[in-house]
Amino acid sequence: MDVVMPQMGESIAEGTIVKWLKKPGDTVEKDEPLFEISTDKVDAEIPSPSSGTLQEILVPEGNTVEVNTVVARIAAAGAAKSAAETKPAPSAAKPAAETKPSPAPPPSGPEPAKPSVPSPTAPKAPPPPAPKSPPPPSPTPGVRADREPAVTQATGVATLEERVRTKSSPLVRRMAAEHDADITQIHGTGIHGRVTKQDFEHHLETIEAATSAAPVAEPQPAARPTPPRAAPAAAPAAAPAAARTFAPAPGDRVEPMTVMRLKIAEHMIESRRTSAHVQTFWEVDVAHLERLRKEHGEQFLQRNGVKLTYTAFIAKATCDALKAVPVMNSSLSGTEIVYHGAIHLGIAVALDWGLIVPVIKHAGDMNISGLARSITDLAGRARSKRLSPDEVTGGTFTITNPGVYGGLFGCPIINQPQVGILGVGAVEKRPVVIEDAIAIRPMSYLSLSFDHRVIDGAMAERYMGELKKSLLAINESAL
Q1: Known catalytic residue: 40?
Q2: Exposed (0-12), middle (13-18) or buried (19+): which is 244, by Cβ within 10 Å?
Q3: Which pLDDT score is estimated for 62?
Q4: Is the residue at 65 inside a domain?
Q5: What pLDDT digit, counting tens, does each position of 59-107 carry?
Q6: Quick one: pLDDT at residue 270?
Q7: Rounded distance, CA 74 to CA 32, Å?
Q8: What is the pTM of this model?
Q9: Do 356 and 338 share a structural domain?
Q10: Which of 31, 179, 362, 452 is catalytic?
Q11: Is 456 an annotated catalytic residue?
Q12: 251 found inside a domain
């Protein structure tokens, strides 16, 4: 039975084999994890489609293949053994010697006449074309080896980097055709150097800036009108500098970036280049939340099967604040602000191999118990690589919690196309002034990164005020 690269979502066209969990000859059961893949959305373990023996692996680790490409084959249980038993024994007779066809005799008849010498005035016949060298052997269909050696110009074949760059999205290729631009001359920040829409728009902005900065000569008076002349083409602007590289020192270990790491880098650069990031910081007294956890945590665990955490409290207050300030639950589409009708809350989850943001769909309709169960479920399946692409897309606002690692506060980067992200700092006891007296209270810093293209400072502060008010309003009845 063929094992194919699954399509992990409508927008996913390829996947990278990260690790084979079985080797040829191993017995596999149906739905047992067979191999791990990485896409531009999620990392996932792919189960075996049937029981049997892993016969062969067609795509080794580290290679990227298109969806529905056959990556391995599984022999049904007992099939390999039956084939070996029914295989006929080799014959003792020696194979007959191969006979080579004798050369064909020369054609009979008179010897052809020698060609006459052409006259000096007669046009010379073009020389016969040189025989073409045989093309290089093609790789396995559908496989793109990340470390395939580039072909030199002498072969006339495009290098791997050129092929990857020209495989940009249809939108980018159409934009390049409209502006008569060469995609291969643009530095791409996408995966494996692909040129994204933002790269192309930045390229056009660079050309426009260079054109407007060019000095314009004063027009000279002409004796008589001259026919209009075509405007000279603008000189191509220099492509943005490539990522800095350097020679590693002796003893350094060099590893290629994983698909997830490449996508994180691409998304972060795109977000910084897209949104006007501004941050604001608030301090919140969470003494009443700590008391709720101590007094009701055990009952909450028995009733819901999950622990009562600060993240669940923050998620509930976040949803309440988004309802009070709807513009924070929006996205910018061109020159239009899209106000989302539902709250789809992203919760950043740190993994050993990267960062992923599962999304709680319709989080605004949930209570603290529902949010706590959803957070625990999504985080657990993210760490075991069992998330589907639909569970990491469609978010309208995001929460990240560096406080679990001891961080007091940070300036998180907005998750596009959202306009805000909330950072939650560690809960620490600090001296504070309460009613003109110094007290020791558990405190936490909350940071909001917002897109100043859509959110003004006053609106951001209003949102944080609603968030703080919602946190302080949580009591036993909310559990």
Answers
A1: no
A2: exposed
A3: 83
A4: yes
A5: 998 888 888 899 999 988 666 555 445 545 444 444 444 444 444 444 4
A6: 93
A7: 13
A8: 0.60
A9: yes
A10: 452
A11: yes
A12: no
The answer to whether residue 386 sits within a structural domain is yes
Return the bridge partners of 442, or none: 429
pLDDT for 140 equals 45
| 401 and 286 fall within a common domain | yes
State whether 426 and 402 are in the same domain.
yes
User: Residue 76 is part of which domain span?
Assistant: 2-80
Question: According to the model, what pLDDT value does residue 71 have?
Answer: 93
Four-residue CA torsion sign, 307, 311, 313, 319:
negative
Q: Could you tell me which residue, 415 or 227, shows the higher pLDDT?
A: 415
pLDDT at 240 over 50: no
Apex CA 435: angle with CA 433 and CA 441, to 5°?
Answer: 45
If one counts the domains in the chain, the total is 3
Res 193: pLDDT: 64
Q: 336 and 442 in one domain?
A: yes
295 inside domain: yes
Name the pLDDT band for 376 (thresholds 50, 70, 90). very high
54 forms beta bridges with: 74
76-105 residues labelled b (16+ CB within 10 A) or e (exposed) = eeeeeeeeeeeeeeeeeeeeeeeeeeeeee
Q: Look at residue 327 and tell me whether its pLDDT is greater than 70.
A: yes
Answer yes or no: do 432 and 470 share one domain. Answer: yes
Q: Which residues lie across from 429 on neighbouring strands?
A: 442
Average pLDDT over residues 467-476: 95
Domain C-terminal end among 274, 299, 317: 274
The Cα–Cα gap between 394 and 418 comes to 10
Question: Same structural domain for residues 265 and 293?
Answer: no
Residue of 229, 231, 236 whose CA lies nearest to 176: 236
CB atoms within 10 A of CB 173: 15
